[in-house]
Amino acid sequence: MADPDVGRLEAALTELNRQPSLGAFGEVVLGLERSAYIILGKLHRDGPQSIGQLADAFGLDQSTVNRQTAAMVRSGLLERIADPDGGMARKFVATAHGAERFTEHRDWRTEALGRVLSGWSREELGAFAALLERFTGELDDHRRCPPG
């Protein structure tokens, strides 16, 4: 028999997926697609990345990431550069415009999330953030190395 708390989590995650996301609202308000926001966030956190690195990080085919990054280059959000470490693969970095759009979108999402969580105590916010970071890290680990 499944753990009832795991069942509660599954139900809560299902409900979360049903809700319009902050990203969807931001896409309408700020005009930055979800995939662009996610790629810009990865580059913001980790610096220049190749197609292969981005595909591995997101668990996507390189062809999918190639289409997404090509659209972002055309729209002026990304540019390709030589590998700063001297490798053969070219890497992507955010343009000044892309970095500005990412920051604008992230700030909008943070403010919107702050309004949703305004009734939570500092302790509740800290605990939730820590547990959610742990959960998303373990989801990523599981995706990369499934048990069995």
3D architecture notes:
With 148 residues, the chain is mostly helical. It has two domains: 19-116, Winged helix-like DNA-binding domain superfamily/Winged helix DNA-binding domain (Arc Repressor Mutant, subunit A, Orthogonal Bundle); 119-148. 69% of the residues lie in helices and 5% in strands. It contains seven helices and two strands. It has helices at 4-18, 22-30, 34-46, 51-58, 62-74, 96-116, 122-144, and strands at residues 78-81, 91-94. The protein has a two-stranded antiparallel sheet. The longest helix is centred in the last third of the chain and has 23 residues, at 122-144. The relative contact order is 0.11. The model has no long low-confidence stretch (mean pLDDT 90).
List keywords for this structure.
single chain, about 5% strand, mainly alpha, two-stranded antiparallel sheet, Arc Repressor Mutant, subunit A, globular
Q: What's this, in brief?
A:
By secondary structure, the protein is mainly alpha-helical.
Please give the largest β-sheet.
2 strands, antiparallel
CA-atom Rg in angstroms: 18 Å
Secondary-structure element pattern, one letter each: HHHHHEEHH
Assigned CATH superfamily of the largest domain: Winged helix-like DNA-binding domain superfamily/Winged helix DNA-binding domain
Weakly predicted, low-confidence segments: none
What's the β-strand tally? 2
Question: Count the helices. How many?
Answer: 7
Average pLDDT taken over every residue: 90
Beta content comes to: 5-15%
Task: Write down the CATH topology of the largest domain.
Answer: Arc Repressor Mutant, subunit A
Helical amount among residues, as a percent range? 55-70%
Strands ordered across the widest β-sheet: 1-2
Q: Can you name the CATH architecture of the largest domain?
A: Orthogonal Bundle
Structural domains: how many: 2
C-alpha termini separation: 20 Å
- Backbone structural class: mainly alpha
